[in-house]
Amino acid sequence: METLELLFASLVRETAVSIRDHHVPFALKNNETGYFAWMDSHPISGYVQEAYREIEETALQIRAIRAG
């Protein structure tokens, strides 16, 4: 990925982590197994995956435009 794509992907990831971390039940913050189980079932995980797919599609379109 190019620099701009990497920066955008980083911003998406940081935003998702921030949203997720603000919604983690307090009891799970120090329970690694419970935390990951909760995170895997949380909708934000799917949103992040979809965002990465969209980033990759956009990157492919940008490369195609630049290639002519």
How would you describe this structure to a colleague?
Helix content is 82%, strand content 0%. The protein is mainly alpha-helical. Helix 1 runs antiparallel to helix 3 (43-67). The mean pLDDT is 77. The protein is elongated. The chain has one domain (3-15, 27-67). The chain has three helices and no strands.
Could you outline the blueprint of secondary structure elements for this entry?
Blueprint lengths: L2 H21 L8 H10 L1 H25 L1
Low-pLDDT runs of 5+ residues are none
Helix content: over 70%
Question: Which H/E pattern describes the elements?
Answer: HHH
What is the total tally of β strands? Answer: 0
**Based on helices, strands and strand pairing, what is the structural class?**
mainly alpha
Radius of gyration equals 16 Å
Q: Please, what is the average pLDDT? A: 77
The number of domains is 1
Q: Report how far apart the termini are.
A: 18 Å
Q: Using the alpha-carbon principal axes, give the shape.
A: elongated
Question: Please, how many helices?
Answer: 3
Strand content: under 5%
Largest sheet: none
Q: What is the assembly state of the chains in this entry?
A: single chain
